[in-house]
Amino acid sequence: MFIPAGGWFKYELEGALRLLSRIDFEVARTPGHCLRFAALGLAVVSECGHFEFWGQVPARALWLAFQLHDVGKMAIPWAFLSKRRRLTSAEREMVERHTEFGENILEFFREWHRAGRLKSPLGRFETTIGLRLAREIALYHHENWDGSGYPRGLRGRSIPFLARVARVVDAADALLFPRGYRGADWHPKKALEFLRQGEGKIFDPEVTRAALRLITPVAEAACPECPNPTCPLLQASLLQ
Ligand SMILES: [Fe+2]
Ligand SMILES: [Fe+2]
To answer: Which residues form a coiled coil (predicted)?
Structure first.
């Protein structure tokens, strides 16, 4: 991820994104999570409206910010992320600290970017905005609407909007897509039910309703036999 540049080392943002996708694929066994997260995050922001503000923010900056939500996982012992066994409370506490580690890592990225030492796939303005938003998302994406989340226990609208979107999107992705550590006991309709039940408790009600408007037609169109472990589509998504 470090590349020499005229005597200085430059940090390559694309390298961090590649590393995160490898952590998703090989360690956490949630292949494609960051990409789906960013895609659904953008769709939910757009479905929520507020175009007078979010319409001004470059979509590529939002894309970058959502993809970096779990950047703090780079600093967690990877054995804890693979979840092959039940974590002890000390290990779980460490995993939960990926939010604060993420904030710290993004502060470094922002400093290097300001100093011209961060190579980014995006333009300078988009990178500046993207990293600022990424910091908020990384730190607060496990806060719950009712104050029961971490790391700060913020509640309601004191949680930044994009972090409230991220909370719903993270849960939706975990529930809707097969994960390596979970058997084939999930069903898209169960995911919808879980999201509905969490509205106003774990999840921001407005954001939940927007996400449900997007996800419901897709989940309801799912094959009635889902999850059928012999389904070639399921096999393909587990193997990708
Ligand atoms: Fe996370
Ligand atoms: Fe995540």
So the answer is: none
Cα dist. 54→33, 36, 49, 128 in Å? 24, 20, 8, 16
* Residue type, position 192, single letter: L
Q: Which of 195, 94, 203, 76 is nearest to 149 (CA)?
A: 203
Nearest to 174 by CA among 153, 200, 133, 203: 203
Ligand having the closest approach to the CA of 138: 1
Integer Cα distance of 144 and 152 in angstroms: 10
**Closest-lying ligand to the alpha carbon of 30?**
2
Q: Which of 236, 148, 233 is nearest to 188 (CA)?
A: 233
- Tell how far the Cα of 59 is from the centroid of ligand 1, in angstroms: 21
Domain residues of the chain, as ranges? Answer: 2-239
Separation of 1 CA from ligand 2 center, angstroms? 22
Q: What is the pLDDT of residues 205-235, one digit of tens each?
A: 999 999 999 999 887 777 766 666 666 666 6
Torsion of CA 120, 106, 36, 32, to 10 degrees: 80
Task: State whether CATH 1.10.3210.10 applies to domain 2-239.
Answer: yes
